[in-house]
Design brief:
The complex is a heterotrimer of chains A (101), B (683) and C (99).
Chain A lengths: L4 H21 L3 H26 L3 H31 L13
Helix pairs in contact in A: 1-2, 2-3
Chain B lengths: L9 H19 L9 H23 L4 E9 L9 E7 L1 H26 L6 H19 L4 H19 L7 H31 L13 H9 L5 H10 L3 H19 L8 H4 L5 H10 L1 H11 L1 H4 L3 H22 L5 H21 L3 H28 L12 H4 L1 H15 L5 H17 L3 H29 L6 H4 L6 H16 L6 H7 L5 H7 L7 H12 L9 H22 L13 H7 L4 H46 L7 H23 L3
Antiparallel strand pairs in B: 1-2
Chain C lengths: L15 H16 L15 H9 L15 H22 L7
The chains are: A mainly alpha (101), B mainly alpha (683), C mainly alpha (99).
Chain lengths: 101, 683, 99
């Protein structure tokens, strides 16, 4: 039985929304980064689903690249959190609120 | 062949050059001006006098000149009008130019004696003021359109303010200067509205036709004769008034400026206070030229006024009343210049009476003779004031006739002219004014009333004039200064002699009674005004007066009215002689009791006008100010406070927290997707 | 010792509603869309091998599955990974450039 592409896309949307939820509600910077990862993987799922839909490998190859870039982004993100920790002594993302009105 | 008209623009520009020289050299290099700017002024006004004389000679050969010299804006074709400077040289303006230039030149020479010899300081400012005044007055006289006339009208008012307030460190002069400026400005406000009305109604401000373009008096004549002039018809249609009514309103508006500038009742209060200025200034500005600007304007626009009989009747009534009113005040005054100031107001009332009665030549004749004898009287008073070390009170004078013979005889010549004694100039001109008023008044009761008032004023004029002469020059000296007066030099005597001779002789240019008697055609002034640009000549004015305004002259020989006015003048003079002659004259005016108080306080007109300003205008001004501050400023401030308030609230979106921004991003995305979905019909 | 995982109750839930709204919108849009029947691949297609060939623009050697060439993106990603590594190292250093 072939699962219809619609449900894969729905899965992708659900994963994306969970990631957004985490992004909006999490305080810890590392959990923040994990949510971002989740969003990127949701996009991957979407890409692979449509690769099957059109019968074209491009989607899957592209998702490999996305994975690689996600890893790079996390590396840089952790570096930023390190600097943030040094400035504000806490990894709480609600702490640095100096660029405000 | 270079014509006089090529140099017409130089007539006002020469004094303007002397103004510039006096200002620049007086400020930067005072040593170059040994007399404080008098020499450039004398040369400039002398040059203007010669050029005006040349223009007069050219115009007498029936040449005229009406050209535009500078356009400052051209209106859209057919929709609006052009604004320009132009020069109009015709019999009337060349006549007036000579008068103004002559008096200006003589006053400059006199100032050498009055200001320089008395050791006054700040002379460059004085001569600059005189130069600027001469420029403005000469340019006003040769203005070809009413807007240019208005501009120079205002400019002479400014120069009057500058010169009256010459000794501004005293308390009196600056206040008098301000009063002069404000009172004339009040009249000029109505004049300005009149100018705008004229442009709006006629599309042009020209006084006389220039090429194909007609001036506004001619357009008014066309409209009242029944021809359709599109510009005027459009405008009348817009405002919904008839032609005659609207033209009368415009005439009245311009009359406001005339009444202010020529010091007629009720805007006469500034002239006596203007005597705070130096006497040569009083002679030039407040006797002979600036106050003449008002009546000159009516003369220039006479083609317009000649068609408005009710306005003319009002002019005559105002003139006659002012003549009587001012002459009555002059009866009790103590200072010599105050008597002369009220005399000026009174005599300009005569000119207005003449114009209102339709006696154009009489008014212009009286303008000339008055300019001469009044300037003479003021300069004579100036000579006396120098002699009395600036004491103006006539009761401190006396017996000066033996010690100052030149001044005495010239002053006497001027006084005889003022009182209207045969054969001095004033007799001929005042007699013609009253004659014209009588013959037109026999057909019109208002003018007859004005004539009666003018006639009584003759009696008063004779009285106050000779009271002045007797108290100043006759009898015995009443103070030490009078016994040993300060001497005066040639620069004072020369203008006095020139004017004295003129006051005695200039009346002979228009001896109407002699013409009636002998049939000789010697009324030269009548002939003078018959030439020129056709629509602004005497013939055209007579035609308009008779056809349109319905003025008809009664048939009366001039001898009886002449004898009547001469008799009254002699009666007034004789009364003054009886009361005041002798070595020790007594002050008889106290016998009038409370009337004297009324007259001496100028019928409380000054206090009345101050009350109008403080009691009526101030409260209105306060209300307007409240409105401006509260409502108009309030609206503007409210808009800004709305912006500030909303700004201070909206900026709280910038919390600085990344998660908040992420939330806003998400919400925004949801909204956009929803909008696109709904519009695109995804569901 | 680690503690058992607990549901975090100290978080601010309100912004999460935005996420939920997003999900609802997308779900509605997706479920009402007509995507069509999936084409799919042939049962015995060599997928992984094709991906490898596609990465180096050698896709003509993979006869079964269509693809595009990804050589240029390969180089770009290599460059970017290199940069990211350098950035991370630079950020992790103490300020002042200590080694």
């Amino acid at each position: 039985m072939v699962v219809e592409t619609q449900y894969y896309v729905l899965l992708s949307a659900a994963m994306f929304s969970i990631g957004v939820f985490g992004l909006l509600t999490r305080r810890n910077a590392l959990r923040f980064l994990m949510s971002v990862e989740l969003m990127l993987n949701a996009a991957n799922v979407n890409l692979v689903a449509f690769s099957t839909q059109w019968g074209n490998i491009t989607g899957q190859t592209f998702s490999l690249f996305v994975l690689a870039l996600a890893a790079a982004e996390v590396a840089v993100g952790i570096g930023i959190i390190l600097v943030l920790f040094r400035s504000f002594r806490d990894v709480d993302v609600t702490e640095p609120a100096t660029m405000r009105w | 062949m270079v014509g006089a008209f090529d140099f017409a623009a130089a007539v006002p520009l020469l004094p303007f050059a002397s103004f510039v020289v006096a200002i620049l050299a007086g400020y930067f290099t005072p040593r170059l001006l040994p007399k404080g700017g008098a020499i450039p002024g004398i040369i400039a006004t002398g040059g203007s006098l010669l050029l005006s004389g040349w223009l007069l000679v050219t115009v007498s050969g029936t040449a005229t000149f009406n050209e535009e010299i500078y356009t400052w804006t051209t209106g859209m074709a057919g929709e609006t009008f052009d604004l320009s400077f132009g020069i109009l040289i015709d019999p009337l303006s060349s006549y007036m130019l000579v008068i103004v230039a002559l008096i200006s030149f003589l006053v400059h020479v006199f100032s050498l004696g009055y200001m320089n010899d008395e050791g006054e300081t700040g002379l460059p400012r004085y001569y600059a003021g005189l130069g600027l005044f001469s420029f403005s007055m000469l340019a006003f006289v040769m203005a070809s359109n009413i807007l240019m006339a208005f501009m120079f009208f205002e400019l002479v008012g400014l120069c009057s303010w500058l010169l009256i307030g010459f000794w501004f460190r005293e308390p009196g002069p600056p206040s008098a200067a301000k009063k002069a400026f404000l009172v004339t400005r009040f009249g000029d406000y109505f004049f300005l509205i009149g100018v705008v009305a004229i442009f709006a109604t006629f599309g042009t401000g020209l006084f006389a036709p220039r090429g194909d373009e007609l001036g506004f008096p001619q357009l008014a004549a066309d409209v009242l004769a029944g021809e359709a002039v599109p510009v005027v018809s459009n405008f009348l249609g817009t405002i919904g008034l008839g032609a005659e009514t609207w033209f009368a309103i415009m005439g009245l508006l311009v009359l406001g400026g005339v009444i202010g500038k020529s010091a007629q009742f009720p805007l006469h209060t500034w002239l006596p206070d203007a005597m705070e200025g130096p006497t040569p200034v009083s002679a030039l500005i407040h006797a002979a030229t600036m106050v003449a600007a008002g009546v000159y304007l009516i003369m220039r626009m006479f083609g317009f006024y000649a068609q408005l009989p009710r306005v003319l009747a009002l002019i005559a009534l105002v003139g006659g009343f002012t003549a009587l009113f001012a002459a009555s005040i002059a009866l009790v005054k103590r200072e010599i210049k105050q008597v002369l100031a009220y005399s000026t107001i009174s005599q300009y009332g005569y000119m207005m009476l003449a114009l209102g009665a339709g006696g154009y030549v009489a008014a212009t004749f009286h303008l000339m003779t008055h300019a001469i004898f009044k300037a003479l009287l003021f300069l004579g008073a100036g000579s006396v004031i120098i002699a009395m070390h600036h004491n103006e009170n006539m009761w401190d004078m006396g017996g000066l006739k033996d010690k100052m013979p030149v001044t005495y005889y010239t002053f006497l010549s001027g006084s005889l002219a003022l009182a209207g004694i045969f054969p001095f100039a004033g007799f001929w001109s005042k007699d013609e004014v009253l004659y014209e008023a009588l013959i037109h008044g026999l057909n019109d009761p208002i003018i007859l009333l004005a004539y009666a008032m003018g006639l009584v004023a003759v009696l008063f004029t004779g009285f106050y004039t000779f009271r002045m002469v007797i108290l100043t020059f006759h009898g015995e000296a009443r103070t030490e200064t009078a016994e040993d007066p300060h001497g005066v030099r040639w620069n004072v005597k020369f203008p006095l002699v020139v004017l004295g001779i003129l006051a005695a002789t200039v009346g002979f240019v228009n001896m109407a009674p002699v013409k009636e008697l002998t049939g000789m055609d010697i009324t030269y002034l009548h002939h003078w005004f018959e030439n020129g640009i056709h629509e602004v000549t005497l013939g055209e004015y007579h035609h308009l007066l008779e056809e349109v305004a319905g003025y008809h002259a009664a048939d009366l020989a001039p001898f009886l009215p002449a004898a009547l006015s001469l008799g009254l003048a002699l009666l007034g003079a004789g009364l003054a002689w009886i009361l005041y002659s002798g070595p020790e004259p007594t002050a008889h005016t106290d016998k009038l009791g409370s009337i004297k108080t009324l007259l001496y306080n100028n019928y409380y007109q000054d206090e009345y006008q101050v009350w109008l300003a403080e009691g009526v205008t101030m409260p209105i001004a306060r209300v307007a100010d409240k409105f401006d501050q509260g409502i108009i400023d309030g609206v503007v401030n409210a808009i800004s406070s709305i912006a500030l308030f909303s700004g201070s609230r909206i900026r709280r979106l910038q919390t600085g927290r990344v998660t908040n921004y992420a939330a806003m991003l998400t919400l925004g995305l949801v909204v956009i997707v929803l909008v696109v979905a709904l519009v695109g019909g995804w569901f | 010792m680690t503690t058992k995982p607990e549901l975090s109750t100290d978080i601010d839930v309100l912004p999460g509603l935005a996420a939920i709204a997003l999900f609802v919108t997308m779900a509605v849009a997706i479920l009402s869309a007509d995507i069509g029947v999936a084409q799919g691949f042939e049962p015995a297609a060599a997928i992984t091998r094709s991906i490898g060939y596609a990465l180096f623009n050698l896709e003509r050697a993979a006869p079964v599955v269509t693809s595009e060439g990804f050589l240029l993106p390969f180089f770009v990603v290599a460059f970017v990974l290199d940069a990211a590594l350098g950035a991370a190292v630079m950020l992790a250093r103490r300020d002042g450039g200590e080694d």
